[in-house]
Write a structure and sequence with these properties.
It is built from twelve helices and ten strands. It has about 350 residues and is α/β, with parallel strands linked by helices.
Length: about 350
Amino acid sequence: MSPDISVVIPLYNKGPYIARALDSVLAQTFQDFEVIVVDDGSTDGGAEMVGGFGDPRVRLIRQENRGVSAARNRGIEAARAEVVAFLDADDEWMPRHLEALMRLRDTFPRAGAYGTAYLLQENDSTVRVPPFSADIPPEPWEGLLPNYYRDAIRGTPPISSSIVAVPRRILDEMGGFDTGAWYGEDVDLWGRIALKYPIAFTWDGMGIYHKEAANRACNKKEPIREHVFVTSARNALQAGEVPPELREDLLEYVASRQIQIACRNLEAGRPDLARDNLKGCKTRYLWRSKYSALFWAYVPSDMYLVLKSHTVTSALLTGVSKIKKRAAKQLRFKSQTGGALK
């Protein structure tokens, strides 16, 4: 019999983390699953670690290096369940994650994707809940997002590649992940789904994003001609496929992706591409971010990188200074009162 849900994990040189990811899947309260790990030409022994798990529900597929989208699409093709969940090899899930996703599936069968909130692990000691949109009701709420594009602009994106499940029929309808993009390919898929279907969300069963992990694709500093979803949205608009009630929020969301890519191109030393990204950027609400990026796009790249580094360093020093002042104030209070700090 087919499992209720298939878990697809793309693997490329994440040997130090893959065991943690698989352990978090095997520890789920919901156990009717299969795990498909697609090794995309790793050279660090991660695939061998997967083979050593010995759980019959864990399958390993090997392929030559073709990128994360091709790896995920290969996993989708091999999936036997009607729902496919995704997990990056350097992230992990809380024990009720699959249980929460399957509950969303049963409660909101018309939804195009199901996602949970998540935690950001920034270093060994810092774990935090990112600032989701205030339009999303506070926990323990779960339901259909009020407006996916607006929520993604006003806060941390509510759907991401390690905390989402999608019905297999919708993945087939969308054609899977775009294999021509190395950045934003997941954002592109969620955005295309949201054009046609509601998105379900829950605060229960969180995932954990490990921002401190090495070899993360989002940390690459390479130029990008255009965000892949900007292209998808333009095609949908030209084809008349955007519902009128979504048009304004979609255009603002597109502007946010254009600004994001412009900033990445600045960091990659390509202000010319950043100017191209911003040339067609039309926004009513993000104009401060747009014109800030446009200003830096006319500053020589070397100067921008130096000033940006100085700004980050100054912010860190300011934060350390505030911590020191707070600690000193607490110590003075303790010495004056003779009491223990709580």
